[in-house]
Specification:
homodimer; 6 helices; DNA-binding
Chain lengths: 151, 151
DNA sequence: GGAATTTACTTGAGAAACTTACTTAAGTTT
DNA sequence: AAACTTAAGTAAGTTTCTCAAGTAAATTCC
């Protein structure tokens, strides 16, 4: 059996739809939630770094971070290594928002997975490490401060 | 081995991020693309049905469909079975937009999957039918006009 | 070692994308 | 056939983004 990427892509598209359309209890826009997710899963980041991952202008990131800060979901802290830069840290409240949404996804997915056969559940379990590896190839987990590549 | 839903949820979240942040060449907003995706994968739908799947107000759907129509990506057609309703059909151009984005995802995912070991690729291939089934449990493929459930 | 350039962020004005509230018209109920 | 419900469109206002310009810290380069 060989891996059909087209089929995998279609399935992942559907999971994406399931994942996104959760009731946004906190009145935060899609992009704002995405920024908070990035901070919560990847740790503190500069505005510039967020600009790169979120596909909006740097100006939009400034405004989004300002809004998140007003709501107490992130903190701005000076970057000790660069006086121009700012590190945006998620607060416990901010992390709780993301965790809450994840919990909701887990609840829903659990309910669905219970309806699979044991063999199907087994197959997914067996593939999980490979799927995690695939994800990691695309977005290697960043440490707090990544060293620039050697010249 | 038993299926860890929490881990699966986290992995799927990361795929979601990969999937969304494609350069939107067509100048269409996220929600607008989502509507087009729905029509392209699920077939013609009423505005009311789109309201349910997209988590925006019915008014927003009207505006989005109007925009898509101006751009030649969908057509409005009267619903023969209900004079109040309209069925929104994707045009070939509309379908092409969605297919183009999928092609880009396939290209990227192919490049990543090539870096997995054969055993990893095999594991994902073996899990694919189960993943497809899981997705289908959440959003059964709608026929053109679904009969209401028997009372 | 100090001017010129680049990098990191902010601000303000305006465009785009949504929401709320209302309207019109077709179907349903009694 | 009058009263109600459902499907869609419209108008006005808010929120969210982009573009352009501005400030301040770091870097480059004579």
């Amino acid at each position: 059996m060989t891996l059909r990427i087209t089929e995998l892509t279609r399935v992942l598209e559907e999971f994406t739809r399931m994942s996104i359309r959760l009731p946004a209890a906190q009145r935060l826009s899609f992009t704002t939630l995405s920024v908070l997710h990035t901070l919560s899963t990847r740790g503190p980041k500069r505005l510039t770094e967020l600009t790169a991952t979120e596909q909006v202008t740097q100006s939009a990131i400034t405004q989004i971070v300002t809004k998140l800060e007003r709501e107490g979901l992130v903190r701005r802290e000076p970057d000790p290594t660069d006086g121009r830069a700012i590190l945006v840290h998620p607060t416990p409240a901010g992390t709780a928002v993301i965790d809450g949404r994840r919990d909701e996804r887990i609840r829903r997915l659990t309910a669905l997975a219970e309806r699979l056969t044991p063999a199907e559940q087994e197959a997914i379990a067996a593939a999980l490490p490979a799927l995690a590896h695939l994800v990691e190839l695309s977005a290697p987990p960043t440490t707090h401060r990544s060293a620039p590549p050697a010249p």
